[in-house]
Amino acid sequence: MRKVLICTTALTVFAMAVPAYAQEADGSGGIEEIIVTAQKKEESAQKAGIAIDAVSADKLLDRGIVSALDITKSVPAISFANPGGNVTSIFLRGVGNITTSSYVDPAVTPSYDGVVLGRGGGVFGAAFFDLSRVEVLKGPQGILYGRNATGGAVNVLPARPEIGSTGAGFNVSFGNYDTVNADAYVNVATGENSALRIAGSRQTHDGYNLDGTDDKDVSGLRAQYLIKPSEDLSVRLSADWTDVGGAGIGGNYTGVFVPNGTGGYTFLPSNLGISEGMNSAASNVYRQGVLGSPGFGFLNSMNRPQTQDITYWGVNAEVIWKTGIGTVTILPAYRSTKDRTFFYGPAFNTANTNEDIDQYSLEARLGGSAGMFDYVLGTFLYKERIQGRNQYNQEFVLPIQQYDQSTKSVAAFGQLTAHVTDQLRLLGGARYTRDRKNMDGLLNNFITFCGGTPGNGFATPPASFGLGCANPGALPHYPNFLTTTDTLNWLTGNGWIAPSSTLQPNAQVFSLTNGIAQILKTHKPVVGGKTFSRVTWKLSTEYDLAPSNMLYATVETGYRAGGFQLSEGQPVYQPEFITAFSVGSKNRFFNNRLQVNFEGFLWKYKDQQITYFTVDSSGTLISSNENAGKATIKGFDIDMIARPARNTTIGMKVQYLDTKYDDLHLYTAAPRDNFACGSTAVTYGSNSRFPATTTNPAGTPVLAGGAQVKDFNCSSNPSLFSPKWTVNIDAEQVVPLNDDLDLVGNISTAWRAKQWGAFEYLPFELIPSYWTTDASITLRKSDGALSLTAFAYNLENKRRDIAPQSSPIGVAISHYTAPRTYGLRLSGRF
């Protein structure tokens, strides 16, 4: 690593020292120019005074980026965490959130075809095919993107219809694990001023785990129609559909934490292979030796295979009208998600997600120039509804969620650029956002307590064993039910509770007919509405040292809306805010043969929203979204591309991150208190989470089971998914064989320093540093019309843990990257 940094620094200093006359060199074979629309206008990525990584269509194909999760191959600042189900968490420079529920907004805004999405699943679960490029904007985008862009934005942009052109193209590849990736497009000139483009994709491979998980089964289809009745008006209509099937993301049992008798825990490794999955024969044998809480019985095998059935579809339009006062752009859109997923979680048997999400949005902008000023003015309207009927089966605890959440958001924004001189530009912008959120939800829990009533506290495992609770068949292991009525019918029909038992619309206790345990059914409505609003702003300056050399400095703020969640203790969480300072430089030298970009940044985070496993006041495991406090993020990144010869390209991206939570307090209670941070007992009135108003005479917060709440002070720990050093290196060599045929070699490697993957900060949650290397060799026609590629990804054949999870019942779970994959790809266009 030290050698990499020395070389990087030397090359940067050398590049900065190159005199201006180097621009006069021969102009052939320069670095390609990528046109981006990140700032709501077309411009070269090198002319945009923001930190942006843009990956072109050719690079997406060359590097085997067939899903959004593969973007890490080209963008060192980004990380993804998907521990199962339909929710993908995005992190940029350490800003993000491990969102486990769809009603929690992301901290990095995903966009598809210019349409801002409320959820990441539609983009990150879909097939990547027939794309123009992917843009990753690093840092808060509070003006042009607005809410929920505190960490940045990811724009996925499909290739557009081409007027006056009729043609087609395809890519088809075959590889190990029975991998088949195929996509194709056809572009038809339907008239002198119109065109139709249709593209489709099919991606499949077998599971990387023995239980069939970590597989892929994705199909996609997209159609676009573009018409330009005049030079001043264009209308593009688009529709897309994606179906995601198969088993989905899998996990593996790493080990279990057991009490050591002194208030701490001892970690016992599972000794299972990292490719078992959670439903293999060996994993189920291991699982049946793990204690479940609060019943303290042993767990069962997984009660059904993991499956996913998710459909995303949408329609959108883009109207561009050039007027005398500027260009008007109108973007209406509708998106729909239907998710029917069974998946395995850290403390679950099988979770069942049934969600329908509908999103309507309309963005209208006016962009133009007046004298020395360029301007962008706009308004944004957004409406979303999420209907969920979910359960998270913990065998002895069965939480059943029913909720209907709606969001209505309106915003007005503007950005002004003043060309003070030919070299100096001053930028300023502001955005007002108003979010209204409503939730009508109900959280019901069936909780089995062994050895005493819930009000008398949790039974200890020895007392539980003495009562026979760990004996096979002594306690009910809940199946997967989505309603309390079905759960009650199952309990009475199987003789666990009295056949005359009836449900009440509040908390109640049922005694098991064998006299060993009792079942507490809690009833918690979460109903309410709340409005959040914020003005975010940006100030920036840009200065051109030369036509291909620019300096910039920016301060910008970001805001992520608060919201509701199905939690008895914390039903409402508040917005988060970030202020980001950055200075940077973008440069081309040696007549466009060397690119050196640099940015240094300092971000101050306030009231960051984080999600972690804790317990609510009934003693039930929940995934709670809370405001953590303060954090500081600072660092720099360097982006270099060199073309020392016409057919040789070398690239390197380096990021340094120094992150720290200035204030991070997490709350939970035994037997779910295995956090590697110092703790103290909580008293009422000690903080806003536990206000002074209470009827508890002792002034000590306790759960329904009698366990005392602890305050774990994790301040000074680093942010999640923020490796101190990240390096991406790639090289391409083209060897002309004759006038019509080229041989192209590509190799890329990425290094990630160690990083934390979960908020408990347990040793197994520290992801070790690692290298990942990909390589390919391509035989192609010189005009690019036909090519054959042999590729291999993850040459090291090391599966890396990218989403560790600590179960509150003590089980450690890990989710791994793909093993070595390889194959052949045939591509063509005509």
Explain what the structure shows:
The chain has 830 residues and is mostly beta strands. The chain has two domains: 713 residues, Maltoporin, Chain A (Beta Barrel), CATH 2.40.170.20; 79 residues, no CATH class. The protein is built from six helices and 45 strands. It has a 22-stranded antiparallel barrel. A hairpin with a 2-residue loop joins strand 33 and strand 34. The longest helix is centred in the first third of the chain and has 15 residues.
Secondary-structure arrangement, i.e. CATH architecture of the largest domain: Beta Barrel
Regions with little confidence, pLDDT below 50 for 5+ residues = 1-27, 455-459
- Overall body shape: globular
User: In the CATH hierarchy, what is the superfamily of the largest domain?
Assistant: TonB-dependent receptor, beta-barrel domain
| Category by helix and strand content | mainly beta
Determine and state the CATH class of the largest domain.
Mainly Beta
Overall mean pLDDT:
88
Tell how many strands the DSSP assignment holds.
45
Helical stretch tally: 6
* Major β-sheet profile: 22 strands, antiparallel, barrel
Approximately what portion of the residues adopt beta-strand conformation?
over 45%
| CATH fold group of the largest domain | Maltoporin, Chain A
Q: What percent of the residues sit in helical stretches (DSSP H or I)?
A: under 10%
Distance N to C terminus? 45 Å
Rg computed from alpha carbons, rounded to a whole number of angstroms: 28 Å
